[in-house]
C-alpha cells in the first residue's frame, strides 16, 4: 500500500515548512510465517511565509499547491490551522 502523507510542520522564524511524504507498507503471509516492509520517503515540502505559499518537490522544482492539496489528504486542514493560529497570534500581539 502506498499513501501520501503530510508530515509534522516546522517553524523557522516566520517560515513554516510542511514535509510531504510517501509511505509504503507491504506485508504477506507465507507458509513459514509473515513478512512486512515499511518505508517513508520525502517527496517535497510546502513553504508558508507571510508573503507566499509555495510547494517544492524534493529536487527543488516548483509544484502546483492545489494539486498537492488534492494528493495529500489533510494538507488543506494543516494550512488552514496554521493560518488561523497566525491570525490569533497577530490579534493577541
| Helix-strand makeup class | alpha+beta
The termini sit apart by 45 Å
Low-confidence blocks of residues:
88-93
Beta-strand percentage range: over 45%
Instruction: Tell me about the largest β-sheet.
Output: 6 strands, antiparallel
Characterization of this structure:
- By secondary structure, this protein is α+β, with helices and mostly antiparallel strands.
- The protein has one domain (2-92).
- 27% of the residues lie in helices and 51% in strands.
- The chain is built from 2 helices and 6 strands, in the order E-E-E-E-E-E-H-H.
- Strands 1, 2, 3, 4, 5 and 6 form a 6-stranded antiparallel sheet that branches.
- The longest helix has 18 residues, at 75-92.
Task: Name a few traits of the molecule.
2 helices, 93 residues, disordered C terminus, alpha+beta, six-stranded antiparallel beta sheet, 27% helix, single chain
Tell me briefly what this model is.
With 93 residues, this protein is α+β, with helices and mostly antiparallel strands.
Helices and strands in order, then pairings?
Elements: E1 2-6, E2 10-12, E3 15-30, E4 33-48, E5 53-57, E6 62-63, H1 65-71, H2 75-92
Antiparallel strand pairs: 1-3, 2-3, 3-4, 4-5, 5-6
Amino acid at each position: 500500500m502506498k499513501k501520501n502523507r503530510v508530515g509534522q510542520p516546522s517553524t523557522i522564524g516566520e517560515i513554516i515548512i510542511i514535509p510531504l511524504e510517501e509511505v509504503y507498507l507491504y506485508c504477506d503471509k507465507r507458509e513459514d510465517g509473515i513478512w512486512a516492509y515499511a518505508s517513508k520517503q520525502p517527496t517535497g515540502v510546502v513553504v508558508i511565509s507571510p508573503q507566499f505559499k509555495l510547494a517544492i518537490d524534493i529536487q527543488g522544482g516548483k509544484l502546483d499547491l492545489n494539486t498537492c492539496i488534492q494528493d495529500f489528504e489533510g494538507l488543506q486542514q494543516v494550512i488552514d490551522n496554521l493560518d488561523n493560529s497566525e491570525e490569533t497570534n497577530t490579534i493577541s500581539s
